[in-house]
Write a structure and sequence with these properties.
Length: 207
Amino acid sequence: MQIFEFNHPLIQHKLSILRNENTDTKLFRESLTEITSLMIYEATKDLKLKLIETKTPITIAKTKVLDEPVTIVPILRAGLGMVDAMLDVIPTAKVGHLGVYRDEKTFKPHYYYAKMPTNVAESKVIITDPMLATGGSIIYTIDYLKKLGVKNITVMCIIAAPEGIKNIEEKHSDISLYVASIDEKLNDHKYIVPGLGDAGDRIFGTK
Ligand code: PRP
Ligand code: URA
């Protein structure tokens, strides 16, 4: 599995804001959007291009344009907090929603909703979820997408636990993972330490 961890100062600065328990919902959402915008440049570096001819005011130039459909798949709910930043830079992307929540006692993922674009199998798919804890939700999502025929999968997270990365690697070593920080460990409740708490609650002001 190809893993890319970001050490960029702007990303680390915004990550510090996300981790702070005193950061309110508005600033949390804004910082999540900003951090995603900074990560997406690297996470999309392999997008396919095709050559076209473009008439400039001076001459005909050979230019390059995107030649690959992109589908963003946020894992509900928290993954939604990363979608707007992605659509800002890839406005032609489609969005497929996958509803999976983690059972509070067993920590296993539970499916409740999916709506994918019809061309998802031919797309490069970028899964978004700020938190990769046990990896169960992301593994479920990758399994789901592969069953639909998707071949090219990238995962974008903000914080990941080493345990979850290992679990994904064992099942899906063919994907790419872009993560702002690989944290220390999971606690007894399978929350990431130090982490940032419950990402969905912090984005949507619930709890
Ligand atoms: C959180 C998070 C991930 C999942 C990570 O979602 O956004 O989807 O837990 O845990 P895992 O790696 O152990 O599966 P949650 O289930 O709390 O749902 P929510 O986004 O609706 O709050
Ligand atoms: N889900 C979260 O939102 N945070 C964690 O630390 C673990 C799972």
